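Technical note accompanying the year-one report. For the benefit of new consortium partners, we illustrate the data format agreed upon in the data management plan: each record pairs a sequence with a structure-token string. No post-processing was applied to the example shown here.
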Amino acid sequence: AFGCDGDNNKCKEADAVEFRIKFVLGGVLEGEDNCTRDWHIKIKVGNSSKVSNEIYQTSEYDLALSDLELDEELTDSGENIYIAEIRIPGGDLPGLENMAVFIKGPKHLWTKYGVDNQTTWYGNYSGKINIEPTEVNGFDFSGFPVLAGDVSGKVWGLPDGWVNTQDFAFIKSGMNNGDDVDVEDLEGVDIIGDADGNCVINSRDLSLIKKTLKQQHAQLY
């Protein structure tokens, strides 16, 4: 049975809870995702203390992007919609009410989803997602993509959890217009500065960084 200790809101010795989550990796378009095959995404679930705003979260669950189901639909921009199915042990869940889901890609920031069918950044500490322990919890976050562009940090080419001028400079340094690149030769290759997985570093990657810069400082974790 799914049970929680009322003193610390920590669920213990509980059955696994199932999740079916739709999400989008910013900029990854149908048919232009040849260099995403080795990508992994991470998912965690958490809530916040109303007293201290301290975040209590599950472990990170790592999933290979190539193992995920693709939705039949695309976003209006032509981006893939992925479907992640995970089972989280009840003992790893910090609660059932007012939760949030966090998703991260390999070149992306942790992006917070506090409501189902979210279409913009979520600017509150506590989420508004309630979890049913005996049902498959289906959530659709495809209306707001996982924020892309974290490709470098103080160590050149090593993501640092932020999108800033270092990422911008890294992509600018590796840009080419694709005229002399045979994309088929690069299929499956993980190019560090390629934020959208199309096997080329170009202005589209810079555009993703600009979009993320408008959002990340409004995120509250």
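Partners are asked to follow this layout when depositing records. Helices lie at 165-174, 183-186, 203-215.
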